Amino acid sequence: MAEIKKEAAEGSSTAPPPTERGKNHYKNRAKKQKRNKFLKNAKSFGKRESFGRGAELEQTEYNYLVAILETMTKEKDTEERQLIANNVLGQLKGKEIRTASNQVGSRIMEDLLAYTDEETFAGLLETFAQNFRVFCCDKFASHVLQRTLYVALLRAVAPLQADQQGEEDGEGEEQSAKKQKVGGAAERGGRSVWPCYEYCLKEQYADEHRQTCRQYVERMAKYLINNLEEFVWEATAGYVIRQCVLNLGGITEKKATNDTKPLIVPEQWHKLLHEFNVQLMAWPQFADLIGMEQTATILQDLLRALASTDDAFQLEQLIAKLFKEAFYTKKVKKEEKDNEEATVKQEEKSDLPKAFQSDSSIRLLEVCIVVAPAAFLKDKLFSKLFRGHVKQLALSRACNFAIQKLIDHTTDKDMMDMVFAELEDSMEDLLRTGHTGVVLALAKACARLACQQGKFVKNLLDALHCAEVAPTKMINAVLHLLPANVTPSTAPKIHLHGSLILQAILDFNKPIKFVTALLEMPNDRLAEILSEPAGSFVANAFVSGRFVGEKSREKLVRHLEGQYAQLTLSVHGSRVVEIMYEAGNPAQRENIVRELAEQCERLNGKPWSAKVNKRLLVDLYKRNPARWKVAIKNDAKVEKMFDKLVGGKKRKAES
Acidic residues bias: where (predicted)? Predict the structure, then answer.
């Protein structure tokens, strides 16, 4: 009996290896759990005869909505979604306001609106237009109002996007997927399993319906402009104003990103956006708007929307007014400051301009930096607000992001020299405080503007105490952003900013020190670095570096020989193998494939390894190397012809 137990224990100890997960596995699982949690809570509220938060519903109405919510959590095709949307909103006719003011009803209406037919949606728009004030001031109904505005925007402007859509069709799958993801960011928290961005732009609607949607957007904008002094201080109405301002500028996502261009919108909408701007600037209490997070975010979105319209005059007017009345004021004495809680220490703030006295003003200043014209950025924002305070701000927990934005958007070498002069002796302090983003911004700016590169490398290596150490220690110090003389208790992971800094350095005019160090590292340690998510992109930077020689690239391909099979077994390492294959000469390519052929059966066990095998024709090489050479040559010719047909863009190695 004891022997049986021992055998069972031994059998249980040999557990199967952990399953490799996709990069979005945990994020998607968290979203699904959150959706299920909302449904679970809705059911439990119903059992306790508490029919949701917000407006009270009757039990039968609430149970009906919960049943619909449960149906909606499952994946449906477009026709099923349209059918559900029209049926449910038909059942709710006459009860739209009360349903939208309930938490469960609000969530359901948000997701269904995009899939309604023309007649149903037009009826809803009229109902909402007659009750703007009710919807604006309700914490749940305001979300539905934002969604109607968003859907109306997409339906109204879809025909104007024909040229932009043609450009997107020529892009790769990765780019189009990114656009879809960004476009869907306007949905509440990105939690919806019923995405509407792509659907609304591609679905065909009658011209009359599109005109109705356009008139709704304009009617809502005029209503908000007329009631701006009241609504700008309301928490729920403030979100509606932000959504309206962004949409008038063609921006569909609330989070600022540089991945997508704004949608093309009618010229009349730009005029309405300018009305928002003129009315806000005319307020006597304009300077007070930056003191509250709620009102400051409206100004942030207004700046972004104006920047998207390419109206430099209106944009500079607003930035200049903010600079004069809100940012650049006399320095505040410590005893004159109020006792409001802030993230920056009081003694730190005593000699700083007003722009750095609160979180809301700092975030607003960051947006100004992003959208300001280059001359205004240098002559006003930098000279009056930042100059002489760069080091202090970079070491501040609240203000270091503003310094990063300033460096990232610097296009003038003289200005960059002045910023660097204030920071060059602070590299070690920045790393010690954990403000590695400032160091990364400096590295990128040095590469972009081709200035201060030698000084940056020297200061970085001195800060990490690795100027005179072995190549492996130097590379590890940069990747981990830990001094070479510090021995951590556990093996550190590659720091994302460390990897990005190394990638930026490989784009410098003279990256020879780091190129040599990478080539002198033991190839097993180098392969280990390139197998990690952050480390794998070092291979991209090495191969695409403008000043990394062809011989150095071939040396790297040769240096990794013997490690390619091991690299292919990991998700990120398999991508590196394809990059090295593209960078190598014909003889080196054959060596890579020969090495993979020896482990062919093992590699086919993983999807990413099998993908590499298929792309490089490893199975064919194993059977007949001579036929492989012919097939590879033919594939190269076809690829060359394909590149000419689609405009000369080189196919990505991972495609």
Answer: 165-174
Among residues 282, 315, 338, which one ends one of the domains?
282
Residue 149 and residue 121 in contact, taking contact as beta carbons nearer than 8 Å: no
Structure tokens at 125: 């728009």
Answer yes or no: are the C-beta atoms of 433 and 481 closer than 8 Å: no
Please state the φ and ψ torsions of residue 102, each to the nearest 5 degrees.
-100, 145
Q: Which of 267, 282, 297 is the last residue of a domain?
A: 282
Own/partner contacts of 650-654, CB < 8 Å, gap of 24 or more, are 652/172, 652/174, 653/575, 653/578, 653/579, 653/581, 653/582, 654/575, 654/578
Give how far Cα 630 sits from Cα of 86, 597, 633, 635, Å. 58, 17, 5, 9
Please answer whether residues 516 and 556 qualify as being in contact, where contact means their C-beta atoms are separated by less than 8 angstroms.
no
- Read off the pLDDT of residues 387-445 as tens digits, 9 standing for 90 and up: 999 999 999 999 999 999 999 999 999 999 999 999 999 999 999 999 999 999 999 99
Residues written for the chain: 655
| 441 lies in some domain | no
**Against a cut of 0.70, is the pTM above it?**
yes
Distance of CA 509 to the CA centre of its chain: 29
What is the end-to-end Cα distance of the chain in Å, rounded? 56
Predicted pLDDT at 414: 94
Determine phi and psi for 53, rounding to 5 degrees.
Answer: -85, 160
3-state secondary structure of 267: helix
- Rounded to whole angstroms, the Cα distance separating 475 from 462 reads 13
Q: Whole-angstrom Cα distance, residue 259 to residue 454? A: 32
The residue among 509, 526, 369, 356 whose CA lies nearest residue 446 is 509
Q: Give the pLDDT confidence score for residue 487 in this predicted structure.
A: 82
CA dihedral for 55, 59, 62, 66, sign (positive or negative):
positive
Alpha helices in 48-169 (DSSP H): 59-72, 78-91, 96-100, 103-112, 118-130, 132-136, 141-157, 162-169
Residue 129 and residue 94 in contact, taking contact as beta carbons nearer than 8 Å: no
pLDDT score for 99: 87
Angle (nearest 5°) at CA 145 between 294 and 299: 25
Q: What is the DSSP string of 367-418?
A: HHHHHS-HHHIIIIIIIIIITTTHHHHHTSTTTHHHHHHHHHT---HHHHHH
**Rounded Cα gap, residues 35 and 187, in angstroms:** 14
Sequence-ordered list of residues with C-beta below 8 angstroms from that of 135, at least 6 positions apart, any chain: 97, 100, 128, 141, 142, 144, 145, 240
Query: By three-state DSSP, how is residue 271 classified?
Result: helix
Query: 113 in a domain, yes or no?
Result: yes
Between CA 475 and CA 499 the distance in angstroms is 10
Return the closest-CA partner of residue 464 out of 411, 543, 509, 517.
Answer: 517
d(CA 276, CA 369): 21
* CA pair distance 636, 617, nearest whole angstrom: 13
**In total, how many domains does the chain have?**
2
Q: Residue 111: give the domain boundaries.
A: 33-162+191-282
Encoded amino acid at 136, one letter: C
In the three-class reduction of DSSP (H, G, I as helix; E, B as strand; rest coil), residue 102 is classed as: strand
Q: Is residue 505 part of a domain?
A: no
For residue 537 the two structure tokens come to 């992109």
